[in-house]
Amino acid sequence: MFIPERWVAAFINSISAQGAEAEEGLDVLKVLSRWGKSLPGAVFGSSAAQKMEKLIREGIAKVSSPGGTRLPSPAMETAIRFFILLVKRNSFSHIDTLIDEIQKFLDRKNGIVKATVEYVPPQADDARIKEAITKRTGAARVELEWLLKPELIGGYRLRIGDDVIDASIRSQLQQLEACLASGDGGN
Predict the structure, then answer these.
(1) Are 140 and 165 members of one domain?
(2) Does residue 144 share a domain with residue 91?
(3) Which helix (H) or strand (E) holds 113?
(4) What is the pLDDT of residues 94-152, one digit of tens each?
(5) What is 61-111 written as a DSSP string?
(6) Closest CA to 140 of 114, 112, 163
(7) Which long-range contacts (CB under 8 A, 24 or more apart) does 134-137 make?
(8) Nearest-angstrom CA–CA distance, 118 and 171
(9) Are 92 and 116 in a shared domain?
(10) How far is Cα 54 from Cα 52, in angstroms, rounded to an integer?
(11) How far apart are CA 90 and CA 87, in angstroms?
(12) How many CB atoms lie within 10 A of CB 135?
């Protein structure tokens, strides 16, 4: 059974033990993931892992300094070994989940909150929304993603992780309709 939390902990702990930056390791893992997905056929098993590791190491030697003397950084080395282990253990299909979970872990560690604002033109005030999220979550930094959603009619819908704040006109109309349909009339 695949348990993402164990894999994430192993990745983070391995990089931390070497005093390396987990963000760098994650960046390398993302590159390796894209490369692995671009390969034809199945990507799993010991044989595939050995071939892939050889290709990766040859690639690093080619892009390193003249003579191929540059060694991978500790974070890069950990990411390579982690990637090869995923392939060897037939768990490569879970790489996107692991990358997402590692990113979430690092965001929590660094106090970063990512939120999605679904809006209808005109766009809501970026600074005001970031300030409100910062007050609500205590985040060190807020990163907003803006998605145009004309079906909201007006207002916006804010997603912070699993929480949703729906300040759209569409939502207000649906609430009014439900209220009137129940015969409550809002009382």
Answers:
(1) yes
(2) no
(3) strand 112-119
(4) 999 999 999 999 999 999 999 988 888 766 678 888 898 899 889 999 999 998 888 88
(5) HHHSSTTS-PPPPHHHHHHHHHHHHHHHTT-GGGHHHHHHHHHHHHHHHTT
(6) 112
(7) 136/160, 137/113
(8) 13
(9) no
(10) 5
(11) 5
(12) 9
Q: Which two tokens stand for residue 2?
A: 């695949």
Q: Would you state the structure tokens that stand for residue 145, as one six-digit string?
A: 């993603």
Q: What are phi and psi of 44, to 5 degrees?
A: -165, 160
Question: Are 82 and 132 contained in the same domain?
Answer: no
DSSP code of residue 31 = H
Is the pTM higher than 0.85? The answer reads no
Of 56, 58, 95, the closest CA to residue 76 belongs to 56
Looking at the structure, tell me whether residues 80 and 163 fall in a common domain.
no
Residue with tokens 């590692």: 102
